[in-house]
């Protein structure tokens, strides 16, 4: 049976402008989804203070950034010797991220006290000056995040991500710039003259259209494989 023309009619033509609008919306949606995954990756190393101006006792700390209220039980922070790759520090964490999404583990002195105000967990430890690395692992030993700092010579062991961050001078810390993990310590961290335990990195920056399009293109290429 042949249907009347007005019931099926010709297929509507999609104008070029409409097609571009639809395509752009799809690209932006994919970009936002990919950017959200990138920015929400957690937990992350947020700040590391390993070299005080005087004695390190009770001064050293590591700040993590993660999901507020999430448990840190089972997470392990390791210090990796840049000379031979040996583990110089191993800290088993216990507790949970605060409502601000931060967790600070601090060193204690011989009396069991710390100079780090508001620390969430107290342990005895001290990281070496660079070139060295600090690695955050889950309960299975999988690396979740890593920070390598200092100038690594040939034959030395860099356990960080991308290129190393600079070696912070005495009294300064290495702090994450924001909550986006770019996988490159030189881009993610900077020297902070005054350590700021419990403050945390800046919020995730709003990506520009160019960044969104770049992320979307990568996402679409991955889906097309």
Describe this protein's structure.
With 225 residues, this protein is α+β, with helices and mostly antiparallel strands. It has 2 domains: 14-38 and 206-224, no CATH class; 42-192. 22% of the residues lie in helices and 24% in strands. The chain contains 4 helices and 10 strands; from the N terminus they run ααβββββββββαβα. The chain has helices at 5-8, 16-40, 185-188, 209-224; strands spanning 44-49, 61-65, 76-81, 87-92, 102-107, 121-123, 132-137, 143-149, 173-176, 189-192. The strands form 2 sheets. It has a 6-stranded mixed beta sheet. Strands 4-3-7-8 form a 4-stranded antiparallel beta sheet, with no helix packed on it. A hairpin with a 5-residue loop joins strand 3 and strand 4. Helix 2 packs across helix 4 (209-224). The radius of gyration is 24 Å and the shape is globular. The two termini are 43 Å apart. The model is unreliable at 3-9 and 30-40 (pLDDT under 50).
